[in-house]
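Running co-folding for 1-benzyl-1H-imidazole.
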Amino acid sequence: MQKIIGALVVTAAILTAGVSCGGARNGSATGAGTASTGTAGSVDGATTGSVNGSAPDAAAASVPEFNADSAYVYLKRQVDFGPRVPNSEAHRKTGDMLVAELKRSGAQVHEQRFDATAFDGTVLHSRNIFARFNPEKETARLLLLAHYDTRPWADQDPDESKHKQPIDGANDGASGVAILLETARQLAIKNPGYGIDILFVDAEDYGTDNREDSWAMGAKYFADNMDANGWRPSRAILLDMVGGGNAQFPYEYYSQQAAPELNTQFRQAAGAAGYASYFPQSMGGAVTDDHVKLIEQGVPAIDIIDYDPRQGFNPTWHTVSDNIGNIDKTTLKAVGQSLLQFIYK
Ligand code: 1BN
Ligand code: ZN
C-alpha cells in the first residue's frame, strides 16, 4: 500500500467565518426550478457525441439516466472561467455559478465563508457551498462532495518551466463538481425521498508536500463546524478526478478503513449499473483528500479517486495537461450512472 501524504502536520489557521442561506425548497424536489430532462441548457460547447444510451447494461428502470453530455457542459462551464484559484475572479464567478445552479435544482443552499491561511502565508478567502435536498429529513442523510478550487501550480508537469502555471483542473476539480451538478439536476426531476446534501468544498488544492494539513482546508472547515450547524451526515461520498481517460477507481485506503460497507455498497451499485470494470476489487493507495477530514470527525466517508498505487494518479495530475481535451465523457458517465444507481437503488 503506497501512501500519498505529506509527513509534517501544520496548522492552517482559520480566521473568520460566516454562513448565509438562500434558495429554499421545502420538501419535494419534483419539478423544481427550471430543471428539465434535457442537458445543462444554455451553455454551448458540448461538442463530443452523446454517450447516453450506450451503457453496457442499462440501469434499473427506476434509476434515472445520468446525462454525461449535461455533465460535460457543466465541466466546460467551470473550465471556461479559467483556473479557479482562491482569491481569483474565476474562482468567485465559479462559486456564484454553483450557487445559482444548485438553487435552480431546488435545493436549500448555504454559503459558508471563511478565511484560511495557506502554508505560504497567503490568506485564502474561501467559500464552501452546501446544498440540501429534502432538508426536513433529519436522519440518515447522504453527503456527496467534490472540491471546486484548482491548484495554482502545475508542479507535477514534466516541463519544469511550467511548474508555476495554474492548472485548468478539468479533471482535478471540475469533473467531480460536474457529476454532482448533473446529479442535483436529476434530484430535482426525481425526488429520492430521503435527505441528500451536496457540498462543494473550497481550498482543497493549495497544499504542499510534507504538510498534510495544507490540503483540504475547506473540508476541514466544514467538518469542524458541521455539528454546530446541524449538518452532520450519516455517510459521505467524495468524487475527485472522475473524468480522466483510462480511469480506474480501486479501493482508497482510508475509505476502506473507515467505511468498508459504504465502499461495498457503492461498488455493488456500479456493478448493477454495468460499470464494474471501472472499480477493480483491488486496494489503491492512501490519499489525504477531503474525505479524511470527515472521517476524522466520525463520518464514514469514501473517496472515488483515479489513483492506482502502481500507476499513480492520472498522468495529467497537477500538470498543464489537466485540460478539457483530456476529459473522457465515458468516465463521467460511468461514475455518474454508478452514483445514481447508488442513490436510487
Ligand atoms: C487530490 C487532488 N489531492 C490533490 N489533488 C489530494 C492529495 C494531497 C494528493 C496530497 C496527493 C498529495
Ligand atoms: Zn489536485
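Result summary
The longest helix spans residues 170-189.
Helices lie at 68-80, 89-104, 170-189, 217-229, 253-258, 260-273, 290-296, 329-344.
Job closed.
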